[in-house]
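User: Please predict the structure of the protein below. I'd like the answer in structure-token form so I can feed it into my own downstream comparison script.

Assistant: Understood. Taking the following sequence of 335 residues as input:
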Amino acid sequence: MAHAGETTTAISQATGVSVQTVSHWRTRLARQGVQGLQEVARSGRPRRIGAAQRLELLSLACEPAEAQGRATPTLDELVGRAIERGVVSQLSRSHLQRILQAGDLRPHRVRQWLHSPDPQFRQKVNAICALYAQAPKGSVVLSVDEKTGIQALQRKHADRAPQPGRARRREFEYARHGTQALIAALDVHSGRVMGSCMDRRTQADLVAFMEQVALAHPKGRVHIVWDNLNTHRAQAVWDDFNARHGNRFVFHFTPLHASWVNQIELLFGIYTRRVLRHASHSSIAQLRERTEAFMAQRNQAPKPFKWTFAGFELQTGEPLRFKHDANVRRTKKGR
């Protein structure tokens, strides 16, 4: 740009560096020629561990601590292994830690993930996402699941209020007053939720709740999205249930190990944070009351979740097509 006649200010604005930097390098080029563009030797001791050795240390840190046991090695173990293999002659823990930080590598951290063995994983997810994007004409899409083992815990001692520079203090001891199971159904397009607290979560309890769902939606097709729990997979039970309601219910099952596809899990997360976390319930009745109040408050101004995931492209290379009748098990007699 300088050779083309651009000014120092114009070069500074175009390249995003300061005017002083542009002026500095133009001056060096004018005085020393092309050699002036080369970096000069910097002050301080040169690196004792070269680039190739640093890469070997990073590779070493990616290896498991034990072939058939513990996966995460300690810094001391990595130092000993590097010296034993001749990567370096000596190395301190702090120096190794700086090298790992510069390489953005944290071998002591582990993040879990869960693989779905379902061979129809993509197709099932796509079918459910199609329902989330738009309900078939004249139908409703409900996301259903159970949240079990909700404990009514009462703190034995009162909290100490937070103060500037000090967080809220809570005594550890608590008293248990029993547990509840919440069965809920979320209308994914309106945001309305209906739920019921129960002492147990049995097949009979689930059928009783689904009868309430049928009363709330007396006409039209009802699409139910839920997981592969054994009570959801009871073919004979849901055949009888569907026969009583004109075969209006269509059941969609999420892939194995893919509960994130079920939108009700998002609502359960909000419920946990706003009702259960850091709460104190003196009885089962109070827990039920607060749970029902939470759902009633949600229904005063219902707002559906903004589901942005549209699905996966199929591995066959075919374009993604949403079909509401794909991967659906309609529970009818003889099917």
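That's the full token string. The chain has ten helices and five strands.
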